[in-house]
Design brief:
Blueprint: E1 19-20, H1 25-34, E2 40-44, E3 50-55, H2 56-64, H3 68-72, E4 87-89, H4 101-106, E5 112-117, E6 120-126, H5 127-140, H6 142-155, E7 159-164, E8 170-173, H7 175-181, H8 185-188, H9 193-196, H10 199-213, E9 220-226, E10 233-243, E11 251-258, H11 260-274, H12 284-298, E12 315-322, H13 325-332, H14 334-350, E13 357-362, E14 365-371, H15 375-391, E15 394-396, E16 399-401, E17 405-412, H16 419-435, E18 441-443, H17 447-465, E19 471-480, E20 485-497, E21 501-503, H18 505-515, H19 518-533, E22 541-545, H20 548-551, H21 556-567, E23 574-578, H22 580-583, H23 588-600, E24 603-609, H24 615-621, E25 626-629, H25 631-634, H26 641-657, E26 660-663, H27 669-677, E27 682-683
Parallel strand pairs: 1-2, 4-5, 17-18, 20-22, 22-23, 23-24, 24-25, 25-26, 26-27
Antiparallel strand pairs: 2-3, 5-6, 7-8, 7-11, 9-10, 10-11, 12-14, 12-17, 13-14, 15-16, 19-20, 19-27, 20-21
Helix pairs in contact: 2-11, 5-6, 13-14, 19-21, 21-23
Length: 711
């Protein structure tokens, strides 16, 4: 028999682009995804000389592990490469491998050989291709060199099996193959398939035989089978090569590998690339892909008259932002925040139809995609259910947490003509919903764009206000009703813009809370209030309203201590006003902060009392020093009986609890007389004094206020 031609390694080579050590794992992933059969990528130095290699199997497993993609995707490949690649000259032949075949056998999962020409990278030779040719070349001359063939087969890290055609028995199975199949080699060799494997395994192999027998020779195939040793389903990829030995029955050689873990790893990476790992929802990338697809499918609708079918041209997007999530996350920690986000995702999915798509775009931003002839109506109905469902309390490790959701809607083609506009306009509508009080939904209107631009300009200016010394502290007096003397002031923040003039607090306080500026601004007003208090008589107190955002962020107590210490103000002269929104989430940090402030000697007031849902419960939970009765009750005086009854009840309750009561919004002498008669301790309002940057002007020699009507 003529000897076979000595195959050169370059004849079996693949030539993928090599990587530099500074390239990232993300670059490697893109190469592997572009060439699914590629077993490895060479890493070369600046001169093109191989210095390492990235093997597909281990690389995919590393990226698919927990946090693997986040850790490695942007890191240099040097963190993952094997630094000792098996390098051979591309002119070498398969016969040259015989002397070093032990190295191939000892490497186990080796992906292949890196080929060089004059020391410079020229390609790779996959191990599976090497073994296929080694086995075939030697098996074809088995009559003269069978021992070498069997030795090479046994050393192979890949499955190598010699079987008779048409479901016949095994002639040879190496150790690697026995591990893959989950059956000892001695149980299979010499036995028909159905005598050695479980029934379901036999059916799997028979189906593979049928497919391969109908395919051209040397066709690569994948098939799943159930491993007899444990019943686990495994995925095998192999090449089947016909083997004709004179005087013997027709046979074939299977050369393959178990790719189950690699396939799972690849699927995991695909999951990470398109789905949010925390909630399991599609991520921003997949949402945009689906949005583009929905618009492409709908483009033939209105313009061509094709108004039937599942899409009918209309696509609606809901942009969703979770209200108060940041403050909860900051105060309770990221683990609690993650739990809340998973629950939010679950509630979102529960209100959607089967054809709708929910996604997490990042942080506490979610989105919903709605398609169909009635997409606009369906989107509004879904938005209503979302705001209702997410306003219901969340139970978190025995604690009750209140969130909420604001929703913006944009509909194609009415509100936008492409995907970018849909995304942008839904966000604009979301901003309107947030500006109008949160917990509601709004659909995009072109007029909103003007408002958004104005808001962005205001936000940019506000970010500069503190550094440019544009903030001012104004003070409104508090009147003792028993002797008509000024006993304190409430410090109020004002913003004097160089071109806008004096900006109303209602125009910038909520914005400052939303973008996180309220923390440094709150620290500034505390410091300024204490500085001014140091210039006032010792019996005059200063009250500061502290934002819910500040209370839910660690560090408030330290800020108060620094302000008092820097200005040498005793703690009892400072009064912290707390709105009911601070207490609504029932968070331990809030009540812990209140207790620490009380222990310092700082006085605490519950502001806007009577406007919330559970004010009496808060009084029972924490002993405040003062209750400030909201101006909505004072405005009805002196004639409104319901206001009289409520104020009378509050003052009676406060007296029983040893608390001061301050009536807000006193603007007439009749109102002043009435709140005094009803038992209020203090009064505050324009009759007593408008806010002013100069508190000393309210303090006369006997410090008796001159009552005057508001101008």
């Amino acid at each position: 028999m003529p000897q076979p031609r000595a195959t050169a390694l370059r004849d079996l080579a693949m030539t993928p682009r090599p990587l530099r050590e500074s390239d990232t794992a993300g670059d490697a992933l893109r190469i592997f995804e572009g060439e699914p059969s590629l077993p490895l990528i060479a890493v070369v130095d600046d001169e093109g000389r191989p210095i390492g290699q990235i093997e597909r199997h281990g690389f995919l497993l590393a990226l698919a592990g927990q946090y693997g993609h986040a850790v490695f995707a942007r890191r240099p490949v040097g963190m993952l490469m094997a630094a000792d690649p098996w390098v051979m000259e591309s002119d070498a032949s398969l016969d040259d491998l015989a002397g070093i075949s032990q190295k191939l056998g000892d490497t186990g999962g080796l992906g292949g050989v890196v080929l060089v020409k004059d020391g410079h990278y020229s390609g790779i030779c996959p191990a599976a291709e090497l073994w296929r040719h080694i086995v075939v070349d030697h098996a074809l001359e088995a009559s003269r060199n069978r021992a070498i063939a069997e030795a090479l087969i046994e050393r192979s890290p890949s499955l190598v099996a010699v079987r008779e055609v048409n479901g016949g028995g095994f002639r040879l199975l190496n150790n690697a193959g026995a591990k893959v199949l989950g059956v000892a080699a001695e149980q299979l060799v010499g036995q028909p398939v159905n005598a050695a494997l479980r029934a379901e395994g036999v059916r799997d192999l028979a189906e593979a035989d049928r497919l391969l027998n109908a395919a051209p020779p040397s066709t690569e195939c994948e098939f799943s089978f159930h491993r007899p040793s444990d019943g686990a389903e495994r995925l095998l990829r192999f090449v089947r090569v016909p083997l004709d030995v004179p005087g013997d029955r027709p046979m074939f050689i299977d050369i393959g590998e178990d790719i189950t873990e690699a396939r799972h790893a690849h699927a995991r990476i695909e999951q990470l690339a398109h789905y949010d790992s925390l909630t399991g929802l599609p991520n921003r990338s997949l949402f945009r892909e689906r949005l583009d697809g929905a618009l492409a499918a709908g483009n033939s609708g209105p313009n061509s008259g094709a108004n039937s079918g599942p899409n009918s041209g209309k696509v609606a997007m809901l942009a969703i932002d979770i209200d108060r999530f940041k403050s909860v996350n900051d105060s309770l920690g990221h683990t609690a925040g993650d739990t809340l986000l998973r629950e939010v995702a679950s509630r979102l999915k529960s209100v959607l139809r089967a054809e709708d798509l929910a996604a997490r775009l990042g942080g506490d931003e979610f989105a919903v995609l709605v398609q169909g002839a009635q997409a606009d109506r369906a989107a509004q109905s879904i938005a209503t259910r979302i705001t209702q469902l997410l306003s219901e309390p969340f139970s978190l490790a025995g604690q009750t947490v209140h969130l909420g959701a604001s929703v913006g809607i944009a509909v194609y083609p009415e509100d936008a003509d492409d995907a970018g506009a849909v995304l942008r306009n839904a966000e604009i509508a979301l901003c309107r919903a947030q500006a109008e009080g949160r917990g509601i939904w709004r659909r995009f209107d072109p007029a909103m764009q003007v408002e958004v631009l104005a808001r962005r300009e205001l936000e940019c200016d506000l970010r500069e206000a503190l550094g440019r010394n544009e903030l001012e502290a104004w003070f409104q007096p508090l009147l003792s009703l028993c002797d008509r003397r000024i006993t304190g002031f409430e410090a109020l923040m004002r913003w004097r813009h160089p071109t806008r003039g004096l900006v109303a607090p209602t125009d910038f306080i909520a914005l400052a809370e939303e973008i996180g500026l309220i923390i440094p601004m709150g620290e500034w007003i505390l410091e300024e209030a204490c500085r001014v208090a140091a210039t006032l008589p010792d019996e005059i107190s200063i009250a500061v309203n502290v934002s819910a955002v500040q209370f839910r962020t660690p560090g408030l107590v330290s800020t108060v201590v620094r302000a008092l210490s820097a200005n040498r103000i005793p703690a009892h002269r400072l009064e912290i006003e707390v709105t009911e929104s601070v207490l609504m989430d029932d968070q331990p940090l809030v009540f812990q902060t209140l207790r620490q402030l009380r222990d310092l000697g700082v006085r605490l007031a519950l502001d806007d009392f009577g406007t919330g849902f559970a004010s009496l419960a808060y009084l029972q939970r924490f002993p405040f020093d003062k209750i400030k009765i909201d101006r909505s009750f004072t405005v009805g005086l002196p004639g409104k009986q319901s206001s009289i009854a409520i104020i009378s009840a509050v003052t009676a309750l406060a007296n029983q609890l040893g608390m001061i009561t301050t009536a807000e919004g006193v603007e007439s002498e009749d109102q002043l007389d009435m709140v005094t008669a009803l038992g209020c301790t203090q009064g505050q309002g324009y009759l007593i004094g408008k806010p002013s940057p100069r508190p000393m002007e309210f303090l006369g020699a006997p410090r008796v206020v001159e009552l005057r009507r508001a101008s």
